[in-house]
Amino acid sequence: MRWRAPQPECPELINQSDHTIVATFGAQYRGLVQYYLLTGNVYRLSRLEGAMRTSMLRTLAAKHRSSVSKMTARHRAKIQTPHGLRTCFEARIERQGRNPLVARFGGIPLRRNRIDEDPLHGHRRRRSPLATHPSRQRDTNRRRPEGIALTPAPP
Q: How many domains does the chain have?
């Protein structure tokens, strides 16, 4: 039986460059992850990452008439993120005298972004006005009713 290249998952991308294929899948995945980062179960997107990664690698393998494992070895890279070392897939276009163009897929930590943390400034946001309203705070300087002693009576 003769070996055949895998069928492309996205036939409209098969005539594009490797950089364009990886950039397209990376942008789609990154957009979905950024949208769902505020949810409590963002870790479930790892299944989506696996499906999109396989689709991207099958498209690249069909383009080059190669296997998925060869495309994995060719495009796998490790990048340093604020959450540690991450594995991703990248395609580079080297340019003379300038930095290379890099398209990446993956490498995004699937950790929940809390609303009370401001990612741009690195500090906690202010609490809501209802939480800091004077009527909701406990006032220790309130007047006590007459006849109630603040200290226990001597025996």
A: 1
